Amino acid sequence: MTVYSSDDCCEWDSEKDILNKNKHHLSFETASKVFHDPWFVEIPDESHSTLEEERFQGFGTINGIAIVTVFYTERCSDGKLRHRLISARGLDPLEKKAYENYLQTFR
Fold first, then answer.
1. What does the pLDDT look like over 23-32, one tens digit per residue?
2. What is the pTM of this model?
3. Which among 13, 19, 30, 18 has a CA at the least distance from the CA of 70?
4. What is the phi-psi region of residue 63: left when phi exceeds 0, alpha when psi lies from -120 to 50, beta otherwise?
């Protein structure tokens, strides 16, 4: 079943959300807040994109505290473009260092 975020900018599969919570201890509802980070950065996820579906990896903070990465695609449903969440988790050490270096370019 498709679930929509409280701010209506994201959607996800309810079963996938349960799997993600069990594996990464992060709900998609919480992870969806990363898109409101003014320093959110998006890169193409070329290893998982196909001709039919382009995927992205995004990095940012939730409420300026937790740094997370989200994997998603964009879907149009009900006439609205939303981020379709595939996975969300904390950053690994290399990702965290790269994100911190990215933030340094703005200081």
1. 999 999 999 9
2. 0.91
3. 30
4. left
The token pair at 84 is: 């379709």
Report helix, strand or coil for 32: helix
Nearest CA-CA partner of 81 in 2, 9, 4: 9
Mapping DSSP to helix (H, G, I), strand (E, B) and coil, where does residue 30 land?
helix
Residue with tokens 């959110």: 40
Whole-angstrom distance, CA of residue 3 vs CA of residue 18: 12
Tokens 């201890």 locate to: 25
- Among residues 84, 99, 4, which one has the least CA distance to residue 43? 99
Q: E-strand spans in 8-103?
A: 10-13, 41-44, 55-62, 66-77, 80-90
Tens digit of pLDDT for each residue in 17-57? Answer: 999 999 999 999 999 999 999 999 999 999 999 889 999 99
What SS3 state is found at 107?
Answer: coil
Q: Is 21 helix (H, G, I), strand (E, B) or coil?
A: helix
